[in-house]
Structures are given as C-alpha cells and as structure tokens.
Design brief:
Layout: H1 6-17, H2 34-39, E1 48-52, H3 56-67, E2 76-81, H4 89-92, E3 96-98, H5 107-124, E4 130-131, E5 134-139, E6 164-171, E7 176-178, H6 181-192, E8 199-213, E9 219-228, E10 234-238, E11 241-244, H7 253-256, E12 266-276, E13 292-295, E14 306-309, E15 315-318, E16 324-326, H8 328-332, H9 344-357, H10 359-364, E17 366-377, E18 384-387, E19 391-392, E20 394-398, H11 408-421, E21 449-450, E22 453-454
Parallel strand pairs: 1-2, 1-11, 2-8, 5-13, 9-19, 11-20
Antiparallel strand pairs: 3-7, 4-7, 5-6, 8-9, 9-10, 12-15, 12-16, 12-17, 13-14, 14-15, 18-20, 21-22
Helix pairs in contact: 3-6, 3-11, 5-11
Organism: Cyclotella atomus
Region (Disordered): 440-459
Signal peptide: 1-27
Length: 459
Amino acid sequence: MFAFSSSSTKHLQFLLSSVCLLSSTTAFTPPSSPTRRLTTSLNMSAKQIVIIGSGIQGTSVAYHLHKSSSLPPDSTITLLEAKEPASAASGKGGGFMARSWGSGPTVGLHELSFDLYQELCEELQVESYRKLPVLSVLPGFGTKSTSKTSVKAPLIPSWLDGSVGRISPLGMGDDTAQVTPKEFVDKMLECMTQADKGVKLILGTCTGIECRQESDGSKSITGVQYQTKDSKTEHSLPASDIIVSAGPWSCQAQEWFDNAVSLPMEGVKSTSIVWKPPLDPKGNPINVDATALFCGEDDRFGTHLEVYPRPDGTIYICGIGGSDYISTSQLQSCAFLEECPPREDRANAATKAFTTMSNTYKEKGELMTIQACMRPCPPDALPYMGTVPGYNGAFINAGHNCWGIAWAPGCGKVMAELVLEGKCKCLDLRPFDPARFTMSGGRGGRGRKKGSLNVGEQW
C-alpha cells in the first residue's frame, strides 16, 4: 500500500486541525461573507449543505459552493468523509488532463475543466500543475527504434533511451497538462478551512438520509445519518441539501433514496507505480524531461502504459493491465473502501515494460511506490450528475470513470450552480441524468479516449 511521507502526514494533520472534527450534532454557524451579503437576496434561507465524500470531486463541489455569490448568508458546507481527504483515487491517480479529448456530451466537461484548472492552480498556488506534451509510443519488441517518428527530437525525453517502436504526437502541450491530485485537494481544503471560511470536515461514514414528506408527494432532505470511525453510534447531521460524491461507493445511495434512482456501478481496481528520479554518478537527481507517454499494447507484459513525469522528478505509471472488476453489490458493501491492495505481479510487469523502454531507469531507477485505487464506471461510461427524482435537495455527482480528476473543477462548478440556482448555466447535464438507468441502459467503455480514439487501458 501507498505510504504517506512525513510531510504528507504533517499536512493532513494541519488540515484536520483547521476543521471541525465532530462526533455529535453540534451546530456550526460561519461568519457571513460581506461579498455574499451584497450579491445575495436577504430573504434567501441559509443552507445546510452536506457533501458525502472529500475526494477531488466532492472537494471541488465544496470549493465552488464556498466561492459562489449565490450561497445564502450563514450557510454551512460540510464534507462527510469515510476515511481521509483524497484517500482513494484522488490520492493515487495520475492527474492527466486534455482539453480536446472529449467526445459527444463530455466535450464541455473537458474544455471547462481544463480552463478552470489553469485558473484555480494559479489562484491556489498549486506547484504540481503544468502543461506538457504527450507522445504515443509503440513497443520496440527488442530493437531500439526511435527513427520511425514524426516527432521533433526535443520532444522525445532523454530517458526514453531503450527499445521503442514508432513515436507520434498526441498533444503538443497547448491543450494537455497534469496536476498531482492530492496537492490540488489539499490546497482547496486549506483555502476553505481557514478559521473564518465556513466549511467543516467530519470523519465518518454515511449510513442513510433523513427527509420530510411533502403534500405533493415529494420528499425534502432534512438530515444525514452517519457513524464515526471509532464508534458505531448513529449521529444525525442537519441538512437542507446533500451531494453524493463518493466515487465508486456512491452506488450505496440507491438504498438511501429507497430505490428512487438506480445507480449501477462497476469499480475498476487497478495498480499503479511511482519511480524515484534517477541519480547521476555524484548522487544528484537527474533532470526528468516533462513529456508524457501513452504506450501501445505490449503483449509481452500485458501492459498499455501511461507514463507521467511529475515536477518533483518522480514518474507515475498506470495502465499496467490486470485490473479487477468490482460489482455494484460489492461496492454497496464498501468493498476496498478501507484498504485497496495492489497486485505485485502487475507492478512487476509494468517495471519490465518500462525498463525495456528506458535504459536510464533500468540502470539507475528505483521503484518508490506500489499502490492501487478504483475508478467508478457506470454502464455507459458517463458520470451521474444531477438531481434525485422525487427528492428536494438531493444530488448525485459520481461515476466519472478515468476522467474524474481531469473533470473535477468543471463538475464542481456545474454542481454548485445546480444546488444554488436550480439549474446549470455552463453545461448541458441531461446526458448525465442520474435517473437514466432507473428502467434500462446500455454498456459503453471503460478506458481513456482522445475523442473516439482509444488511447489508454481499456480492459
């Protein structure tokens, strides 16, 4: 399993010390923002918003709610997290994004989120964000072959010095970028949870919802039930609105809402690895060129590598094959929520595939981390984003497949609009209706695409 560094642990401790960790229903009223008072009608009722899940999606929703001038004065925003912020895919994902790789209904999510990332990472001083070129690299099958290429030499990283086949560009760095998602989550939380910012975090597991029956037959959200990690005692948290944003485990909400919405979900549990920077003869880290790679299927190792050099000199690798598929019923029972063990055999296969491509890492590299996480896949590979039918104040934001990190800022913005204004102004959410499978549905894809072109691990 991934081990937190001492600096990561200290940062988490700082975050937790900056928020209200509650095991009861103590009321919390934040100071009102002068800006909000000027731009919000004074007769609007304060909201008690609860977001279930503090990964990059849930935290982004909280951040955009917090920033919105439409948030009524004296409102509260609570993140209810079962483990710790960014403990699952948001802490172990690659963080790649591409503005022009969307297709059909996802085009807007790609474009909106890519633009917001650049804006927010500057605003939050996120050090790991940068634009970078992306290459398609085919396996070499035993021969060093970088001559079959349509790529200018400066784009080919110096560490790609082993056996490779044809190389071609997928992105020149104008519309492709990366971020380390854990840092982005931490920076959003740090910004929101300063002493007077009105956001709180509760470490606990949601066990159900509370609602009020209305005369028109609908139900209105009144609270969330949860248990803390150190107690099985049920607690109740008042809520006017809830947003379920708990990744693959969001399918538990189907029971909370008495099957008013069907949320079929498959968890794709995949292993990834992280390499330390190689050292020169004097023991100093070698500069790692910032070019990402999408590698072709390599039948020798069963891999389809995605290689992401990071600004700190490490290299993150996923697409290593052998993923396990976790059913909806297993996810509803919280499978792999507490622990998500990696597969050592796939880490070994990825190591062999990567060091075949890179003599530098074969001779000087050192594997630093072996880890695993799950991406949430609805049957049609589109996210669930919208309202729960028959419930007032109930929303789903989950199932974003392999693009959950890349789409996070855009999803946060559109969900904040939906919660506060009753409609989304910047994106058409109809294709993502959470109720679309309540009767029937079809199967889409599991992997990463550039438009309609498969460029990542599919199975």
